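Lecture 7, part B: from sequences to assemblies.

Below are the input chains for today's worked example.
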Amino acid sequence: MAIRIENLSYVYSEGNAFEKKALDQINLIIPDGQFIGVIGHTGSGKSTLIQQLNGLLKGTSGKIFYNDQCIYDEGFEMKKLREKVGLVFQYPEYQLFEATVLEDVCFGPKNEGLSPEEVKERAIEALNQVGLSEEYYEKSPFELSGGQKRRAAIAGILAMHPEVLILDEPTAGLDPKGRDEILDQIKKLHTERGITVILVSHSMEDVANYVERIIVMNKGCVMFDGIPREVFQHYRELEKIGLAAPQVTYVTKGLEERGWKIDTMVTTVKEAKNAILKSLGK
Amino acid sequence: MIRDITIGQYYPADSVIHKLDPRVKLAGTIVYIVSLFLFQSWIGYVIATIALFSVIKISKVPFKFMVKGLKSIIILLMITVIFNLFLTPGETLIQIWRLKITKEGLMTAVFMAFRLIYLILGSSVLTLTTTPNNLTDGLEKALRPLNKVKVPVHEISMVMSIALRFIPILLEETDKIMKAQMARGADFESGGLIKKAKSLIPLLVPLFISAFRRASDLAIAMEARGYRGGEGRTKMKPLIYKTRDKMAYIIMLLYLVCMIVITRMI
Ligand SMILES: Nc1ncnc2c1ncn2[C@@H]1O[C@H](COP(=O)(O)OP(=O)(O)OP(=O)(O)O)[C@@H](O)[C@H]1O
Ligand SMILES: [Mg+2]
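Predicted structure of the full complex, as structure tokens:
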């Protein structure tokens, strides 16, 4: 289920005083089964880009191919695309509306036209995946805490069994444990089911720990695209656009400046530990 | 998508009209609208046209934005024209079956159409060049004398400015929630009336909840900053007439006099 983006540009409020070019000539190929991180400063066009991927926004120019079929072609079934490309919005808790959590999670699969039993089965499975236990099923979504709402909303998308899962800052405002739980769950889905995951995040650590490819957005353009250890080598450029490398990269860089012979291509604590031990000759 | 709706939208530009005191613009709009109904002759239209287009030109708002406002009254415009065209008694010009178009009818229809269009364009100039906040400030100050007869002018204008401020926010929110539900397979377009109404639930519930949440947040934030009604409250940017405002009043007066004198003479 590869996605290919060709020369995609997007302008908000075109022909209006508030015109704003949010995406500028984007070219990307997203093959099956990758875990991709998208980073970029506020307003760099991350949310705009991912809304293009399931056709919620239509590019002002350029094309998007889903399995070699252009999604802007006449007769292309947008609804099918949206079942396959699941998008969890920034602050998804604002989309909850049903009387109970369980019913709300059922909304997506129900729209796919599944049988009631199957819908319920999927909803329960999804709620388990995000760590909401049975005691919450019959609660009103509005009684939950912010983090629990977030989980319920993510479950609402997981229940649709997407082949491509896109999450726009899913962990903003969660505690460290909740953050790890959710990201671990997503990682598990990625390895078990082989789904493609695109994770938009402001946390360099999260990105370094989970993804295998990073796309750096800057002012509507793709600035870097590569594996984390390579992308974070450009930490000076990243700092210029308001981003950074993971803390451990700075640690090893600092050691190198102080004369250590050390591998600085590290992005996670584990890698850093190994590099330091190796440099100490242990 | 939904953001493209424009209701009394402000168009930022750097022009004298933008800088005028909102009270001047309010008065000007009223004077202009009244003047449209003062005359019957074509010379009046010439003057009104020149005045309107000069103001539009000075305001630096592109003409196509002005015209946008006209879309909303197109049906009203057509009805007015058709009624006037066929129902005014007088000298028959063309007769189709039992429908007569009279000379007087044609004249009134054309004049009425122009009046309506100018009326909308005139008030568009006001809303396009004045921020909603500024406008309500102006209204509040202009209506302050009504305080004496126990009209809560400050509260009314506060309600108005909050309402105006919230229109774009709620539109944006609607857009966001619609997209989020569409990502979950919701369908807002197809189906019959009942199905369509039902499909609005996933949109309306979160929208209302967020509107209430915003309302209560705003109320708390206002109280936290010591808001307690209009009594003794001063403005950060008090409205004071400047030279250009006085000049604008004089121009307005000249326009009105011109209009009356010339349309009476010719
Ligand atoms: N509905 C809209 N109408 C007009 N302009 C918009 C709209 N949404 C976003 N923009 C503009 O488009 C640009 C890109 O916005 P986008 O939401 O994609 O940024 P982002 O990278 O997701 O930022 P953040 O990290 O804050 O979520 C911004 O400059 C923003 O001001
Ligand atoms: Mg965003």
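Note for the exam: Chain B has eleven helices and two strands. Keep this in mind when comparing with the next example.
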